[in-house]
Amino acid sequence: QLQLVESGGGLVQPGGSLRLSCAVSGYTFDAYVIGWFRQAPGKEREVVSCISSNDGSTYHADSVKGRFTIARDNANNTVYLQMNSLKPADTAVYYCAATHRDYCSGYSMIYDYWGQGTQVTLSS
Fold it and tell me: How many angstroms separate the CA atoms of 49 and 36, rounded?
């Protein structure tokens, strides 16, 4: 059983940066793929980024490629999402999630554990 807790959200101006953290408690953290998803009001949840468990390979959605970076710190059971050049379209609740497999997937239904979410709001 894993527990995930997100932090780092907030209110930021367009063009600004935020770093989200996902602290994971439980056993064998390094055996889990960790994904970041987001859900804006009135929209479906979508994958943002994920990082594999075995080789650290990453995936970023086209909408965030070149602006967001995902990284994991296995020693501290934490995954980070560095978000730069933020846009109003990035406003959403951001969730981290975990699934016990080797490689990333953007399909939310395969993720077994979810955090409570952290709000990111872009406002000028």
Answer: 5
Residue keyed to tokens 């846009």: 87
Whole-angstrom Cα Rg for the chain: 13
pLDDT at 40: 96
88 SS3 class: helix
Gap between the Cα atoms of 124 and 115, Å rounded: 28
At 3, phi and psi to the nearest 5? -125, 135
Q: What is the pLDDT of residues 33-78, one digit of tens each?
A: 999 999 999 999 999 999 999 888 999 999 999 999 999 998 899 9
Place of tokens 């995954």: 79
Q: Does 85 have pLDDT greater than 80?
A: yes
Distances (CA, A) of 106 to 13, 18, 25, 27, 103: 28, 22, 22, 23, 10
